[in-house]
Amino acid sequence: MARSRDMTPERARGSALVPGLESRAAEIGAIELLRGNATVRIERLAGDRWVVATSDAYRARTELVRALLVSIGSLTIDDRMTAKKDRHSELGLAWPDESGKARLVRFLATAPGAEPVAEVILGDERFAPDAVFARLPAQDQTWRALGRVQVPADALAWIDRTLVSLPSGETLSASIAGLTATPSPNDPGPQPGMPRMPWGIAVLEPEREHWSVEQVDSA
Questions:
Q1: Domain count, the chain
Q2: Range of the domain at 103
Q3: Whole-prediction pTM
Q4: Could you check whether the bond before residue 137 is cis, i.e. omega within 30 degrees of 0?
């Protein structure tokens, strides 16, 4: 027997679409973002670090994870929309949705086997004021919620591509793959509105025998 849809509760205007989400942030162990046939899964590691599990566990942009949590937790009910399932597509809220209009966001619990902390389907957006059509997956009732949610569909947008951050004025050199980079002795340091002076690159002596003259010159 198919499971019946949850009864739709009465929701007051101005109430949170996903009540208590931010207060339960510590319970979240992973976030899944589904759109069309694409899935991005972001997992929390020890030390409150996040990685994009569906992209070789590259480090995730923590500020985007936080912004997603806060923006969804801040959505407030503005108006009741349709509760007819066959009209969900008109608001971009049909699910499953191969067209890629609807976005399903799932906040999964750290505890194994636990129910998700929260799930929400986001549809078409409106502006002036910022609003988004939304519904909970277990309910057919749809809502217009005030607020704006940024949910990048591309996994690359979630990856922190910062390789390393070197403290200005404290780094004397950096070596990698047979190369040594050193700052210019004439570099005055960061100046407002001015580009930084390029570092000098040299090939380490033990590596020179493995490099051609052209490679050394281009370095």
A1: 2
A2: 22-158
A3: 0.73
A4: no
